[in-house]
Specification:
By secondary structure, the chain is an all-alpha fold. 7% of the residues are buried.
Length: 99
């Protein structure tokens, strides 16, 4: 019996217990909410995220470990590499695949 298959590319994240069931979907939903909040405040979604990052060495709350990486620098580099800088199409945020 011959098997026939077709390769397709989708924009959906695979989910399963090995990936943390529901993790990609929940992360996407949360990031889209951050985009919506930024838009309502008339702020750039990337800049809005940067305003709320912990800085290296800043303690989030007593008893927790401080950050050991520069999240702002990382987001700046990623945004530049994917072209997510400056004005964007209305309704399209940093978490959108159309950003």
């Amino acid at each position: 019996m011959e098997s026939i298959g077709e390769v397709v590319r989708t924009s959906t994240a695979p989910a399963g217990s090995f990936r943390g069931f529901g993790g990609p979907q929940a992360c996407f939903a949360g990031e889209r909410q951050i985009d919506a909040i930024a838009r309502r405040l008339c702020l750039d979604p990337v800049e809005f995220r940067k305003r709320n990052f912990l800085r290296p060495g800043e303690v989030p709350r007593p008893g927790e470990t401080p950050m050991d990486s520069d999240l702002e620098d990382g987001l700046t580099q990623v945004a530049a590499r994917i072209g997510c800088t400056g004005p964007r199409t209305p309704g399209v945020g940093a978490a959108s695949p159309l950003a």
